[in-house]
Amino acid sequence: MFMIWLAANLVVTTMLTGTLFVPGIDYGTAALMIAAGTVIGTIVLVLIGNIGTRTGLATMAVTRGAFGAKGSFLPVAANVIILMGWSWVQAMLAGISVNYVVEQTTGFSNPVLFSVLCQALVVGLAILGHEGIEKAEPWFALLILVVMAYIFVTAFIGHAPSEYLTIPADESLGFTPVLALDIVIATAISWTVLSADLNRLAGSQRAGIVGSGLGYITSTVLAMLLGLTAFSFILLDGGAAEPFDPTALADRFGWPLAIVIFLSVMATNTMVVYGMVNSVIGARKQSRLRFLPVALVLGAISIIGSTWLALLDQYTAFLTVIGAFFVPVFAIVIADYYIVKRGFYSKDILRDEGGMYAYVRGVNWAAVIVWIVGAFASYLLTYVWASPVGATIPSFVISFLLYLALSWSTRHRFAEAALRDAPSRGSVGGLSG
Q: Which sequence ranges are marked TM in the entry (predicted)?
């Protein structure tokens, strides 16, 4: 589990996220926010992942317990939207990297064209070769670790660590430590949508929690610190670079870095597209949707969207949307599973109609209302009333407590159902894989 999560998040998007912080805030503060935000986000990630270990359910299937069979369409739809955005961002980064290499060797430049070609390749791999890419991803991660070591060595030989701490913060940029903290937590939230999917394969709860927690923390802190350090190195050398621009790093550390970026993006984005298709198909257990038609439709949308290079300039806003969409969802699911349902989901969770989780015509309106309130609170605390502790943590607390308040009276009913089903439990969480 450690290696799976280490490989999963050693990706270029995480590395480039580290380039967003300096010179908006100083290097030391940025490093502290990266560490703190990663640990906070990991708590949510491992709690959701542990539900997958206990029940054998994927993340979007887990949401059926709190939202209902039909109510879960809400987080599923949000998941597809977020994954589609990720597929666009990844394709653009791959396209820009390929364009850099081609331009350096031939003089031809067309980043939009290469973004489209990269995403078309991703869609093809997701349909035909995703299993091979999944097996190759750890090797890509190893390659990235080698390149990361090279960049760290180059950066700290070129400038002493004390020099990085002297880079002055530019307050005119309007970037704050709180915003940095929110971005790092939002990164963890974006990976939490896959936590139960991966951790349901863990051999034990301890293996899932410790492996995924340490793996995610290690990879995220390393990758973000690399981006932070590499970008700061360019600034110390007197260079000018745009944050979240892979060509700035490739120009300083060589075109092999651009190739590594391309390979890692191909591996990760293939699984993103594959996961997006499965989210749509798995929304209903008795769905008549088939993989290939859904993959072609979503693939076409992802290819068209990869031409929107301006999205890279709105990356922080994109992460804010992720937080607003999914922080309330995971707060609700954690409160529902661990407290309201007392750590037990019955096999009724697999039913599209009827059963313990039917609620009102398949929708738990308490969860839907809390989701709306939590998302709105996140928006207000980000754009209207700037919170001194950011938007993510208050949004989580508000959603968690409000859901408990609205659902507390149902604990007794679900406890009785859990006792009735106890003899047939396939695992500690109520279901076997």
A: 31-52, 73-96, 108-128, 140-160, 172-194, 214-235, 255-277, 289-311, 317-339, 359-379, 385-406
φ/ψ of residue 247, rounded to 5: -70, -30
One-letter identity of residue 264: S
* Residue 386 Rama label (left phi>0; alpha psi -120 to 50; beta): beta
List, for residues 189-233, the tens digit of each pLDDT value.
988 988 998 898 898 999 999 999 999 999 999 999 999 999 999
> Rounded CA gap, 93 and 23, in Å?
22
Fold of 1-417: Hydantoin permease (1.10.4160)
pTM of the model: 0.87
Nearest to 222 by CA among 3, 8, 1, 9: 9
pLDDT digits (tens, 9 = 90+) for 356-389: 888 888 899 999 999 999 999 988 888 888 777 7
